[in-house]
Amino acid sequence: MRKAQIIRALFVPVLLALAACDVPVPTSTPPSQPSQTTEEIPADVRAAARRFVTVADRVEPVAEAACRAQAPDLNCDYNIVVDDRADAPINAFQMVDDKGRPVIAVTVPMIAYVQNDDEMAFILSHEAAHHIARHLDRRRESTRAGALIFASAAARGGASGAALDTAARLGAVLGSRVYAKDYELEADAIGARIARDAGYNAINGARYFERSPDPGNRFLGTHPPNANRVEAVRRALR
């Protein structure tokens, strides 16, 4: 079964009752809630759900093709799912399941927050790009290296026990963040081309950042300034 079919199958409950969709989520699912009829769900929420299904249906095969072309040794069989936790923030993220399959998860608040198809396409393409660029593996390696470097330095200084553990944890945090902003910019660039090839306007999609809080250029921040991200998209499409 291809992803387009999987998305539709998983999203049927969303179209009927977003508060009780039956899809895989990365953390524990809250207790079941009473189902809603279609009439009880606001029209704008139903429209957002339909937008998500339509855009995901178009973006997934293009992202898969890009993945197979740029990283043929990876599992490129994307599974796009909905994180329907009631307390989920406006967010989208990429992970890999226990079988190595790439998963793109989008929260219900994010689906409701985007303003048009271009924004939705850019967000999905950006997350697909993280997998193509192997950012999870690269971050894991950087995290491990940071922990080892700090723990080794602490040990040479005579640290042991809890002090050694603290040094390793600090090194792990720093290691995980040292390239975080670069990874986001790289995913923006690759994602912009995926969105474009799927038939969407990636420049318009990147206008999402105009409505997002700007993280600024913080030392060891996890995300780059919004202006830098928009520029990365523009450069990628020139």
From TrEMBL:
Entries under InterPro entries matching the protein: Mito/Outer_Membr_Metalloprot, Peptidase_M48
Membrane-spanning intervals of the chain: none
A GO cellular component annotation in the UniProt record: membrane
Biological processes per GO annotation: proteolysis involved in protein catabolic process
Pfam families reported for this sequence: Peptidase_M48
Cofactor: Zn(2+)
Domain Peptidase M48: 61-235
Cofactor note: Binds 1 zinc ion per subunit.
Entry-linked PROSITE patterns: PROKAR_LIPOPROTEIN
Keyword flag Repeat: no
Record keywords, A-Z: Hydrolase, Metal-binding, Metalloprotease, Protease, Signal, Zinc
UniProt GO molecular function: metal ion binding; metalloendopeptidase activity
CDD domains assigned to the protein according to its UniProt record, in alphabetical order: M48C_Oma1-like
Top-level lineage group: Bacteria
Leader sequence segment: 1-19
Record family assignment: Belongs to the peptidase M48 family.
Name this polypeptide is given: Peptidase family M48
Native species: Pseudooceanicola nitratireducens
